[in-house]
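User: Hey, my collaborator sent me this sequence without any context and asked if I could get a structure. I don't really work with proteins. Can you help?
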Amino acid sequence: MKYYNRLPKEGVNTPQRHPLTEFLRLTVAAIVALLLFVLLLNSAGGRLGGLIPFRVELWVAQRLDDAFAQSGVESPFSSRASETELIRYLTQLGRQVEQALGMSAPMVVKLHYSDEDTFNAYATLGGHVTLYKGLLKELPHENALVMLMAHEYSHVQLRHTARGVGGGLAVAVGAALLPGGSGVEGRLYSISSLVSNLNFSRSMETEADQNALHAVHQIYGHVNGAADLFGLFVKFRGVDKDGKLDRFFSTHPLDAQRIGSISQSAMEQGWALEGSLTGLPADFQQWLNATR
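Assistant: No problem. I've predicted the 3D structure and written it out in structure-token form, which is a compact way to encode the shape of the chain:
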């Protein structure tokens, strides 16, 4: 028997696709794989963060407050506002919101007020919620104020801050373990992380909206006026965003979607969309101006 050293066929090692096509295919596959990896890390880290006892969150907030104090930087965990009619009113209304949401110790909110002319409000670790004068002065009635407070209180109750921190830490650890983190892979990872965090934030905002709407109904027996809060956001931005890219890159659900969700949720739950609106105290604007 004779053996022959047969030559391979011509082009056996030559790819059938164009090199540029092959490069694009591999790039897209890498981006998709990284995005799925980041989503998995974010979700797993968020779930673990939400399982941490609230007492631990309080402890972390206190340590952070001490660190701010030592560095001489203003801390979001401590309030320097003096006891005023405005603070007493907001605190009393906050207790109603806590009761409507079913919150109890140790999960209680520490309410802060800032006289900065900023159109904002936020919740952070340890149940700390800050309301800014710039937003409060635009509110048309108490119903919208309750919707605002209940939304921020819901972030505390639903452990959104802890979940966000947990997800962020998990993604950061993944970035540290990723080979070549300073190169193209690192940039792709950063983009994937951004997309993941935006979607994580939007889901939390939607969940907080639904929870807050329940509190509004509990307090007033209807949800009229809740949508007016998001009407203010439309007014503040000048024009509501409705483009696909805006929807993709926004951390919050679009205002039009949030307004529509209120009506849809009310109908699903059998809640009244109409009802008497409760005005803000007669001296509310005066209280705001007096804090300057």
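In plain terms: The longest helix spans residues 184-220. You can pass these tokens on to your collaborator as they are.
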